[in-house]
Structures are given as structure tokens and as C-alpha cells.
Amino acid sequence: MGRYPFMEHGISFPMLVIPTSWYFTTFVNTFWLFICCASTKNFLLFFQRWYVFYKDPVTRGLGLRGLNPIKHNRYLLIILWVFASLNVMACLIICIMSDDFSGGMNKGLYVTGSRSVFSICMTGIVMVFCAFAWLSPPVLIVAFCKLISVRFEEYEAIFTLHVTAAGNQFPKHFRLLRECHLAMCDTVELLDRYMSVASGFIFGVNVTTACFLLYVLVNNPMDYTAMAIVVFWLVSSILLVVIIVHYQGSVNNAMHSVGTSLLTLQTCDVNKDQLA
């Protein structure tokens, strides 16, 4: 009574949950990444509305052409490769070492179900794809959040330069600027709802995995190196959630900052005749 089939193979339930959570996390993130790549119209709509600014002759005269945070994206790619490589190495170390090393966790990671050179090689190949599937969706969210934040910061710079260039007169292109800002905000709201659903999946899976990892770390004997690997997974799961929340908050802050500047100008220095 109370036994399940895997106990006959020496795999405890917590040690089985970790690989299962890992594969489930990979599946959820891969599914979201597929949906994201298949639904690009909201992203394209944002950038189409953004580049309306650069068709404006005043903006061109100010020498603004639009910038991409390429340096930031390079750092993201480096971090992606580093964490993916560390994760694959961690999985391979667990698979190569004996059962006592990880408390039987390796038995749940073997792709072919047995400890052999072929199984370890196949597990390594699978883990490469799993590692990138685990990290790519959060990296994609962070990259887009950074890009959108930069766009709003550039918008605020454009807006300030337009007002400065107008001197004592109200800038002639204020209506265009205001309409573009409202359009961008509408698009960001669509993106925010879209990414919030994805983030909810990622948060839920990573937090659940972190709880299981913490439980395993406290209640199961294993080698100190294996404990360090579990801590690495635990910290990574929590860190992903914190980073995504931070960057999504930066988008909202940048958007509301521009909206505040527009509202201040409209209420303090502009009358209805100038807006007409």
C-alpha cells in the first residue's frame, strides 16, 4: 500500500518530481515561444506606430533616427548561453555520477531509462534543447521590454526637443506626437496583456519548481555538489521571475512618465484652440 511503480526502481517521489517539473517547464515555455512567434502582429504594430515619428520633418531635422539596444541584447545572449551551458553541465554531472550522488535524481533524467554512455549522450543532447527552451521565453520578454522602454525614452527626448525648438510658440506637431503616444500606449496594453499570460505560466511553473527544489534540498540527503546544483536551479527559477517583473515594471514606468509630461504640457501651457 502507498507504493508507486518508480519506487521499485529506487526513485523517490521528490527525486522524480524534479525531472518531471523540468520537462514540464520546458514544454510550457516552448509552447509560449511558439505562440509568440506565430502572433507577431502586435509587435509589428508597435514598431509601425513608433516609426511614424521619423517621418516627421521636424524630428528628422533634429537628427533623430531611432536606436536599437543592440549592446543590451548582446549581453542577454551571452547570459543565455552561459546559463544554458551551466544547466547542461549540471544535468550531465548528475547523470554521470552514481545514484547516491543525487539521491536517485539521475534516474529521472535518463532519456532511455538506464545509465549508459548512449543514454548520457542522448540526455545531454535533449538537455541542450531543454535549457534553451527554459531560458529563451524569459530572455525574449526581457529583450522586448527593454526595447519598448528605450522607445518611450526616445519619445520623451523627441517630445522635449520639439517643445524646446518651438520656443515660446506651441509646437505645431503636438497633435502628431500626442496621437502617436496614445497609439503606442494602446499597443503596449495589448502587448502587456499578451505577455502577462505568458509571464503567468512562467511564474507558476518556476515558483512551483522552486518549491519542489527547496523541499528536496531540505529533506533528501545528497552530495554537496548535487546540493549546489539544486541551489543553482532554485536561484535561477526565482531570478527569472524577479527579472521579468523588473523589466515589465520599467515599461509601465516609461509609458506613464511620457504620459505625465504630455498631460503637464496640455494642462499648463496649452488651450483648446491650440489642440484643435
Question: What can you see in these coordinates?
Answer:
With 276 residues, the protein is an all-alpha fold. Helices cover 80% and strands 0% of the residues. α1 (13-38) crosses α7 (117-166), α1 (13-38) packs antiparallel against α8 (174-219) and α7 (117-166) runs parallel beside α9.
In short:
This protein has 276 residues and is mainly α. Helices cover 80% and strands 0% of the residues. The chain has ten helices and no strands.
Mean pLDDT: 67
Please provide the ordered H/E string of secondary-structure elements: HHHHHHHHHH
Structural class: mainly alpha
Q: How much is the radius of gyration in Å?
A: 25 Å
Categorize the overall geometry.
elongated
How many extended strands? 0
Beta-strand content bin: under 5%
Topology of this protein?
Layout: H1 13-38, H2 41-50, H3 57-61, H4 70-96, H5 99-102, H6 105-109, H7 117-166, H8 174-219, H9 224-268, H10 272-275
Helix pairs in contact: 1-7, 1-8, 2-8, 4-7, 7-8, 7-9, 8-9
Organism: Elysia chlorotica
GO molecular function, one term: taste receptor activity
Membrane topology: Multi-pass membrane protein
Core attributes:
elongated; 276 residues; mainly alpha; single chain; disordered N terminus; disordered C terminus
